[in-house]
């Protein structure tokens, strides 16, 4: 295969893929248009059926009229024969023969029209059912397409939300780290300041009970116990009666 032929094949393949992609992307719009085209064709078929029915009924009316004329002319032939007017009777008989020929010709034509009507009615009914079935399927496809688009949108939003949450978590972690570093800096600075001013040594002395201003739970209990003893002792002394000297 020559290079030109290969390029031509490549162009046709690319064009076909591009065309198919466009068709797939607009499949629902194409289906809707095809349904509208089918409805238009069905409307024309119904018009054709109505015209066929109208012509068949006109032919039937003419056929009935021919039958009525034959009945009338037969009476006229009998009347002419009864009067001995054979020429007139023959002329009327000729007209009857023409009408019977018309009836013989139009009868099969009317039957053919009836058969065509039946076929057309069946075709219209079948096509209507197919169109309705296709329309329901298209509705289902549209619903599924909407659901899938919604699911895709939710999925994309969820992915974006997860990404944003992850980014926010990273930012929060960095903030916590900066705060921890800052707190450590402040603590070290306070320790250095306490050492410079001697506050750390005073705290150690207070904890040891050497400096005033420090009271432990044991100290509080001891103080309260001592106060209770001082209150109870005078009461005991006053309640004991004085001893009498022997006579």
> Could you tell me the strand content as a percent range?
under 5%
Give the helices and strands as they follow along the chain.
HHHHH
What would you report as the Rg, rounded to the nearest angstrom? 59 Å
Helix content: over 70%
Distance between the termini: 159 Å
What composes the largest sheet? none
At a glance:
This protein has five helices and no strands.
Description:
This protein has 247 residues and is mainly alpha-helical. Helices cover 90% and strands 0% of the residues. It has helices at residues 3-25, 27-82, 86-197, 199-207, 217-239. The longest helix is centred in the middle third of the chain and has 112 residues, at 86-197.
Keywords:
247 residues, mainly alpha
List the helices and strands and how they pair.
Elements: H1 3-25, H2 27-82, H3 86-197, H4 199-207, H5 217-239
